[in-house]
Design a protein that fits this description.
Layout: H1 2-20, E1 31-36, H2 38-41, H3 45-56, E2 63-68, H4 74-85, E3 92-95, H5 112-135, E4 141-146, H6 164-182, E5 185-188, H7 189-201, H8 219-232, E6 241-246, E7 251-256, E8 258-265, E9 271-277, H9 301-304, H10 308-312, E10 315-320, E11 326-331, E12 334-340, H11 341-346, E13 348-349, H12 357-390, H13 401-410, H14 415-418, H15 421-427, H16 430-450, E14 456-462
Helix pairs in contact: 1-7, 3-8, 3-12, 4-5, 5-6, 12-16
């Protein structure tokens, strides 16, 4: 009983915390910049958010920018805030930092307490400088984002950086104060994800949303981050479509976020109608994307949030008062599944089925969006060279002989610089950078051409039982 009470308390606390955090939804024409470190740079949560808007609001064209660079502290983010973020003219800026500011191996030293205080003070100073830059922007919505957590509690190993989680919490608190002072929005991944980890670790001490290094969420963790943002934006229980038909009365009782017409009910109890939704179902990728370090696909969100499909991806079909028996559900003559009259009366979620034409359409958008993500990641590798290497060391023009000589010198002893030699050789040419950006533009153009829902014919055909042969 005590364990059950504790779990209920944790769940209730998490629900209350989620309800307390709200974010404005994105609107047509928004250019959203996600600023951060490797969790943003190499992660997917911003891409999953955009995919939701691509499918749920097909006429609401947006642009979402990955402005993360792996390894960045608040110092690097401050340095590149103007050229890498503000100069790209975003209408919304999601700003996070802290994971790298909070330290790693420095936290094992005897001087860790002093080092932590100095590092938190430096991050606070950098934040205040960023604050002044952001305050000067007109018509730009600022959202301070508390970073996803460093999970020091999971028990899958003993490799823990002491004080790191506490340092992060203090820096997130600084962000919250800045947000309140300026009337900006604030969203705290650190708090929400830590609460979820605590809850799950009561049943499985090795569980974590934060990946094997306690830092980087896998694809399912990034989808959980996107889910938290969408809930805060009020997207919970917003259906793809919701259809309710009374077969006996031959009436359409409900058609939410869709159009249903040409309803026919045959003498044998079959039902047919035309269906045009205003949205597409949200596709969940079954492939682990993003590189060898990512092991779990986006679709694992249904393990983290068992009601995800019902809550965030409901494409409901309910047909009541049907004759008893079984019925084959077909969409455009494609067999989807067989249901009893009772199941149809309770309602089925068509978004569970990957073979529906509308889900296949959505999955094509998902694939295009992944291709866009791949190209954007290439450009973020170049951003590291341009800003975190050259600009940080005083080189604003990366094409000069001096810049070339400096690169050749540094790559002899810095393996990270050496690993970017191919990127530098290609991307120092502005025509190549433009071609990469044009490629992304072409993909986004294609997505917003192909994401308009199509009209489909849905039929429920009675399954005829075989008659027993008589001798």
């Amino acid at each position: 009983m005590k364990r059950i009470t504790t779990l209920l308390t944790l769940v209730l606390g998490m629900v209350v915390a989620m309800q307390a955090q709200t974010l404005k939804p994105f609107k047509t024409g928004d250019r959203v910049a996600f600023v951060g470190n490797s969790i943003t740079d190499g992660g997917h949560y911003h891409s999953y958010l955009w995919l939701y808007y691509m499918t749920r609001f097909p006429e609401q064209r947006l642009w979402m920018m990955n402005c993360g660079i792996g390894g960045d502290t608040s110092t690097e983010i401050l340095l590149r805030l103007q050229p890498d973020v503000i100069d790209r003219k975003p209408s919304v800026i999601f700003l996070t930092y802290g994971m790298n500011d909070a330290g790693m191996f420095e936290l094992y030293a005897d001087t860790a307490d002093v080092w932590s205080e100095q590092r938190i003070a430096l991050a606070r100073e950098n934040l205040h400088k960023m604050e002044q830059q952001l305050k000067a922007l007109d018509d730009t919505r600022i959202v301070m984002i508390g970073t996803s957590p460093y999970d020091e509690k999971t028990r899958f190993n003993n490799n823990i950086f002491p004080r790191k989680a506490a340092n992060i919490t203090r820096m997130v608190g600084d962000q919250e104060q800045v947000a309140r002072r300026n009337g900006w929005e604030f969203f705290n991944f650190n708090d929400l994800m830590t609460r979820y980890n605590d809850e799950r670790q009561q049943q499985d001490s090795t569980f974590t949303l934060c990946g094997p290094d306690r830092i980087h969420p896998d694809n399912d963790g990034h989808m959980y981050m996107a889910y938290l943002v969408l809930k805060a934006q009020g997207m919970s229980s917003r259906p793809v479509a919701d259809i309710r038909i009374d077969a006996r009365r031959k009436t359409i009782e409900r058609a939410e976020n869709c159009t249903v017409d040409a309803l026919e009910v045959s003498k044998d109890g079959g039902v047919a109608f035309d269906y045009l939704a205003r949205s597409l179902p949200y596709p969940l990728d079954t492939i682990a994307r993003g590189g060898m370090e990512f092991k779990r696909p986006q679709s694992r969100i249904t393990d983290l949030v068992p009601d995800f499909q019902r809550e965030m991806n409901a494409e409901m079909l309910c047909v009541t008062s049907m004759k008893k028996g079984c019925y084959e559900l077909c969409i455009d003559d494609i067999l989807i599944d067989t249901f009893t009259a009772e199941q149809l009366g309770e309602g089925i979620n068509m978004a569970y089925y990957m073979q529906t034409p509308q889900m296949q359409q959505a999955r094509r958008l998902m694939t295009l969006n992944e291709d866009r993500w791949d190209m954007e990641r290439r450009l973020r590798d170049w951003a590291w060279v341009e800003y975190d290497f050259f600009l940080k060391n005083g080189y604003r023009d990366v094409t000069t002989p001096e810049a070339h000589a400096y690169y050749e010198q540094e790559r002899q002893t810095n393996w990270w610089v050496a690993s970017r030699r191919d990127i530098y050789a290609k991307m120092e040419n502005p025509a190549v950078v433009k071609a990469c950006n044009d490629y992304m533009e072409d993909i986004v153009d294609a997505i917003y051409r192909l994401n308009r829902p199509q009209r489909h014919t849905i039929t429920l055909n009675p399954v005829k039982t075989k008659q027993k042969e008589t001798i």
